[in-house]
Design goal:
RNA methyltransferase activity; rRNA processing; single chain; eight-stranded mixed beta sheet; transferase; RNA-binding; binds S-adenosylmethionine; globular; Rossmann fold; S-adenosyl-L-methionine
């Protein structure tokens, strides 16, 4: 469904950015608004170092890079080389390749060898995709309970790895395109038990109130908001 964006969302997403307007004209429909919302929760600022942990094919990486206005750096990590190549091509096309470094690696190994700590880290985790069934109807039929358990373990491992890349005082955003609490709130709660050095940073400054849960997370619901379902938690690391 293609609907006009509401002024509230446009203000939050700074849609006067010429880069994003260009993307809107070319390929962003209302269904991709959640990409901007997730980036808005991270709130990239010029001069910051950002790690996008599961970056490919790169919609969020490109949008984050555009928000840096040429100052700062985005390291885009993904395990899938082919998908990372798409990201590299898109970065060149949109002339943000000078501030994006792509790294093909399993995040869980990368974190063991990387001394680099960043201001902000986005983990847009692999998920069941239950928020995007309007585009992926096949997902309805091919997921088993075992798949979900495996996915939750992977999400936990990736969260642990991503947290090791955040500076003291820095921000970790965990997002999925799922509406399943087991992949969202429950993963965050389990993470906070394992990592008491992190706490929840309420997203009220970053997205419209209509998209905020009681606990201060971003949540879009395909039925309520007419957008793809997605979730994001903004977590801050203690100094
Ligand atoms: C939800 S998609 C990311 C979408 C991307 N953030 C975007 O906006 O275009 C999840 C990504 O996680 C990557 N991935 C899965 N396991 C990984 C791992 N162990 N290390 C790094 N990346 C991984 C997949 O290759 C996939 O591209």
């Amino acid at each position: 469904m293609h609907l006009p964006m509401r002024r509230q969302e446009m203000n939050f997403l700074n849609l006067d950015s010429s880069f994003f307007l260009h993307m809107i004209k070319n390929w962003i429909s209302c269904n991709y608004l959640f990409v901007g919302m997730i980036v808005s929760v991270l709130d990239p600022q010029p001069g910051e170092s950002i790690i996008d942990c599961c970056a490919a094919p790169g919609g969020k990486t490109l949008f984050m890079a555009s928000q840096l206005h040429g100052q700062g750096m985005v390291s885009a990590i993904d395990i899938n080389e082919g998908r990372l190549r798409i990201l590299q091509e898109a970065a060149k096309l949109h002339q943000v390749d000078d501030i994006i470094t792509t790294i093909c690696a399993d995040l869980r190994n990368f974190v063991k060898s990387s001394p680099q700590l960043s201001d902000k880290v986005l983990l847009d985790a692999p998920c069941s995709g239950l928020g995007v069934l309007s585009k992926r109807a096949d997902l309805r039929w091919n997921k088993t309970l075992e798949d979900l358990e495996e996915l939750k373990n992977l999400q936990d491992e990736l969260l642990d790895a991503a947290s090791g890349l955040v500076k003291p005082g820095g921000i970790l955003v965990y997002s999925t395109c799922s509406i399943d609490p087991e992949e969202n709130e429950e993963r965050v709660a389990a993470f906070l038990l394992r990592h008491p050095e992190f706490g929840i940073d309420h997203v009220q400054k970053y997205v419209p109130s209509d998209y905020i849960t009681e606990r201060g997370f971003y949540y879009s619901n395909p039925v309520k908001h007419c957008l793809d379902g997605a979730f994001a938690a903004r977590l801050v690391r203690a100094l």
